[in-house]
Design the sequence.
């Protein structure tokens, strides 16, 4: 079965700091990987996704993530955060065994607080 | 304006009562999902449906039931058998773009059972 680990539960940064949120998954085969963001009071929305091809994917609002297959990781990065990035971030995986039913497994989430 | 609606936003029930959460989408998506979100536990899949009149259990289906009689609607019933029903419930739907499915989420319903 697939599982996702997000080891950073709460991250606090100052504006303009660089961000990296960790995401590791456990599944030996082909995967689709996602980062979702939940801004305060808003819907959960897709930040970026990896399906195939270039392992460095770019998303909305200056976020990017790198898929490193050998490390089973899909860490989220942003070179300079803004106060508006304050939100909860979820990593999710869909393993090949679930292709066709699109069952996403989510991590426990990382709460990001940006201090102005 | 296309999207997913969940009603109500807040729901309060007494222990022992069944309660049904509404989820409607006008995105013409085939697949729909119900998740439960608890602090520190992320989102956990309760039920999902890929087509009308068909649905499958997710990871935590016990104490819940669903129906999918129409493409647009996927109501979730939280029964009295659910031992810890107080939570934030999210509905999602998905469409296929090329060979990739993206899930879109509704605003959620916060259920409190006392």
Sequence:
């Amino acid at each position: 079965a697939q599982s996702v680990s997000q080891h950073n539960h709460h991250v606090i940064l100052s504006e303009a700091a660089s961000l990296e949120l960790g995401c590791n998954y456990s599944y030996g085969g082909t995967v689709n990987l996602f980062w979702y963001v939940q801004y305060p009071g808003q819907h959960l929305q897709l930040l970026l996704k990896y399906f195939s091809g270039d392992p460095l994917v770019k998303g909305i609002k200056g976020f990017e993530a790198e898929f490193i297959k050998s490390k089973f990781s899909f860490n989220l990065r942003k070179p300079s955060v803004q106060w508006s990035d304050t939100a909860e971030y979820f990593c999710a995986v869909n393993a090949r065994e679930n292709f066709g039913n699109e069952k996403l497994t989510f991590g426990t989430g990382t709460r990001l607080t940006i201090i102005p | 304006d296309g999207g997913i609606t969940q009603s109500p936003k807040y729901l309060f029930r007494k222990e022992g009562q069944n309660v049904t959460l509404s989820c409607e989408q006008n995105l013409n998506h085939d697949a729909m999902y119900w998740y439960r979100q608890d602090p520190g536990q992320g989102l956990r899949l309760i039920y999902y449906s890929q087509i009308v009149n068909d649905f499958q259990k997710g990871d935590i289906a016990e104490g819940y039931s669903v129906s999918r009689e129409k493409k647009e609607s996927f109501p979730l019933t939280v029964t009295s058998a659910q031992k810890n029903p107080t939570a934030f419930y999210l509905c999602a739907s998905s469409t296929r773009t090329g060979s990739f499915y993206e899930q879109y989420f509704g605003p959620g319903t916060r259920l409190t059972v006392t």
User: Anything to note?
Assistant: Chain B is about 0% helix and 55% strand.
